[in-house]
Fold:
Amino acid sequence: MADFVAAIDQGTTSTRCMIFDHSGREVGKYQLEHQQLMPTAGWVEHDPLEIWQRTQEVVRQALAERGLVAADLAGLGITNQRETTVVWDPVTGEPYGNAIVWQDTRTDRIAAALDRDGRCDVIRHRAGLPPATYFSGGKLQWILENVDEVRDAAERGRALFGTTDSWLLWHLTGGIDGGQHITDVTNASRTMLMDLETLDWDPELLSFFGIPHAMLPTIVPSSDAAAYQRTRADGPFGGEVPIAGDLGDQQAAMVGQVCLREGEAKNTYGTGNFLLLNTGEKLFRSTNGLLSTVCYQFGEAPPVYALEGSIAVTGSAVQWLRDQLQIIRNAAEIETLASQVESAAQLYFVPAFSGLFAPYWRSDARGVIVGLSRFHTREHIARATLEAICYQSRDVVEAMEKDAGVQLDELKVDGGVTANALCMQIQADTLGVEVSKPVVAETTALGAAYAAGLATGFWTSPEDLRDNWLEDRRWAPQISDDERAAGYEGWKKAVQRTLDWVQV
Structure:
């Protein structure tokens, strides 16, 4: 019997292959970064061919370093950066230009036009999403309207659309030789094109964006061995492996954190922050700026839904301090710098570099640093950056409690920023609840592995997964309610200073 499950985690800045044993412990990993292409202000692109090449490399290296072969793997799960849009030719396998990344804002006029008429209400009700540059539907419309020959190719069946999971699944299962063109319900729910109740592409939503149905992948459950083909024998795994799971990265983190019961929540700290609340089989339609989304669907069971607060810039604000301002030399240095002051001394940094996501959804916003005086130093700016990560998460928690009527009493956290203990303490202080970090911090890849392992019988039930979850560290609030309220009031004033900066 196979002893391991593999996961491919195709993220915004890198791709990795991770291998887990039955206890959920990482036994193998290999990771490579890919280029961030920014040809003009507001545009963010990736090279799909580079991503596919990196995927093959990380798979081969992860297996080789552990001395494993395809037969050692009970299954493979995929997780991916959501919303990033790829269009390619199924005959040649060549993409029609670079992928448009979820952070890209070139579709602001498309989103604004949708928001000005009645179409926005239909999109919000059926897809659970506000018209925004974030989601795939507008990106695909832009490609059809602006990239030579794509519209004609789509009408002739020579153009396929997918997020990066679809792009990789197509290649892994055969590519031009019969590759499977699919996506799962979680990724489909991020396009503005899928009806959350029917779990199928909606003809009226497609008409809003002028998208031919034939371009779209088949929507399948997040965990289901029968829905996916095996990897091709001559591919990077060097043999056939059952593909049995596919989830967008934030939904995968929910599964990896075992937030499988209604009312459980997690926050992933990466390039942005993504806070999700499991709402069970009940679909909540947010009235407070959150996203209604599919959390996961296991086999033929009904879908489980979530409320999500997506925050565009958190960890990438730390990168900005490092790369653009050169206040720090590496990401870890921000904790040392910020810990040299007890507070940001009423200085606030709102990193609305490409507008504000949840719960504001203001593409006209741009970043500000407010409250500056000659007293302030780079240490205060570093601390204000960590506070911005945490205040943005509080914005989402406040909206979540209003929508679902659920009072958060604990927050599970994961992602790279959780290595910063000061930031996690600030998060506990800002929210007024305890913050818990698991031993296995790579919960996105682990969630994809769990989805595949459940479908193939490697794990027999979600309770097996709960037994694997172990806490690494916990932070409790250390400031008073009055201090918490005053700090948050200043943050809300700072957010108002970001608005109405760009004409859309």
Q: What stands out?
A: The mean pLDDT is 93.
